[in-house]
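From the pipeline queue, job 12 of 40. The input is one protein chain; the requested action is below.

Action: predict structure.
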Amino acid sequence: MTKLSVNLNAVAQLRNRRDLPWPSVTGMARIVIEAGAEGVTVHPRPDERHVRRSDVYDLAKLLAEEAPEVEFNIEGYPTEDFIALIEAVDPEQVTLVPDDPGQATSDHGWDFVGKGNFLTDVVGRLKGAGRRVSLFCDPDAGEVGVAAARATGADRVELYTGPYGACHDDPAQAEVELMVLAQTAKAARAAGLGVNAGHDLTLANLPAFQAAVPGVDEVSIGHGITADALIYGFADAVRQYKAALGAAG
């Protein structure tokens, strides 16, 4: 069954609007874990506009002491500072994204062919301690792209599902995007890569994604689940997302 990793960046962004300690990122992590989330994801950016470096250390301590079975997934562009943070915190999974520091959010995958040598060196450094490395992947990367991703030594790719999520009012285009995602996922598995997914997945579009793209190991969801948490509460939102994942599983 596909695991759910809850991205807490939106929680941190809300906290950062005021010089106050709430909502607590670690407190929200406890809630989503108790509700059944199998992972916690953060994407610390250099300007700390969302998750701060201190949050990363606090979450690592929380998971190690209170929930060692829950995976910690840290996303980011592999600068030397980011790699040093990974080496200090030692999460179970690192997801490398090709973000410019100023981007509002991730919006494209790696050019695996053009950046292959660069990524190979980085992946080798990060896997040295036994961590799993996932690479953010365009939905239409296809066989050539995922073969190049596999050649870097990565363990998984994370399918960028933003174009599919943008089709909330266009069912016909959503079917096209699902077909593209399914083809890339199939190629990734054939190449020996695990498959993660994330970006703009919601309670409404997750069941169709699960049905069309079987065998996904993990989804990382932040904005959608946080928006639903405003309505249902975070614990119930997590339970509903887990139910949506299981409906087609």
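Job complete. The radius of gyration is 17 Å.
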